[in-house]
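Final report, closing paragraph on structural work. Over the funding period we assembled a curated collection of sequence-structure pairs, and we close with a single example.
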Amino acid sequence: MASQSLRGRVAGFVESRWFQNTVIAVIVLNGITLGLETYEGRFSFLHERFLLIESLFVGFFAMELALKMFARGWSFFRDGWNWFDLFVVGVALIPLTGSFSVLRLMRVLRLLRLISVIPNMREIVNALFRSVPGLGTVIGLLFVVMYTAAVMGEKLFGRISPDYFGNLGTTLYTLFMLLTTENWPDISDSVIEDAPYAWIFFVVFIVISAFIVLNLIIGVIVTSMEEEVNAERWEEDQEVELEQHQAVMLRLEQLSSQVAALSEQVGVLGGSPGEKTRDAAGPDTKKPSARKERRAEKRNRRR
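Its predicted structure, as stored:
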């Protein structure tokens, strides 16, 4: 029981708003120091201090993960984002000497922990992962379009402009530049003098790839994000409806108990409420007949 109460207090501490804000602030500060380290000539005198600061950051992140693991128990390992945090922080604990020195570059990945800490960013990334099946189909369609256009472009313009359409690989790279609509007039000008009909090829390819297929990709991502947001709202609505249903049922139980108590009181007093109302109305109905008798007696006395 003592360990459970301690775990509950640690969980409340880790999940508190101020602790989460502190983690975000430390991640941002770590990113700033990593950026300052790139100015080796200007901040070379701070090299030893950067090492000390780096050790402090690693110690803080290790302590944070240890507290989360203690607070959540085995459920900590059920979340994929926790595995990501373990990997990013665990890399920093590997000795950065010899063949492992290249792993020092992976310190920059700690900046990506902002995604796992900030809920809104986490929702966006989850929506992107959820859209992977649909994106795979659309990207496959885009590849088919580009490959077909590359083969046609190499056959049509390979001799005219070998710099852009000399072989299949070069043509694919050229079509990728057309897909981004970057410097496409230079590409078209290189062949349009010798092939006046080339504008048809460029216009059709740009319309299909850049305007239609890319918009399909954006549509799939937006739909997945809407589903992610709606799913969370649906869960919240279900919780609210459950609470309201429980409140209504509790109120009905109270009303039913009150009705049962009233019926018992009526039974003890004897008679139903209808009989009581008739008994109460009885004297009022007898009043007109009594008045008639009194009037008849007065008339008899006068006579």
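Residues 135-210 form a domain with the Helix Hairpins fold (CATH 1.10.287.70). Residues 198-269 form the longest helix (72 residues). We thank the funder for supporting this effort.
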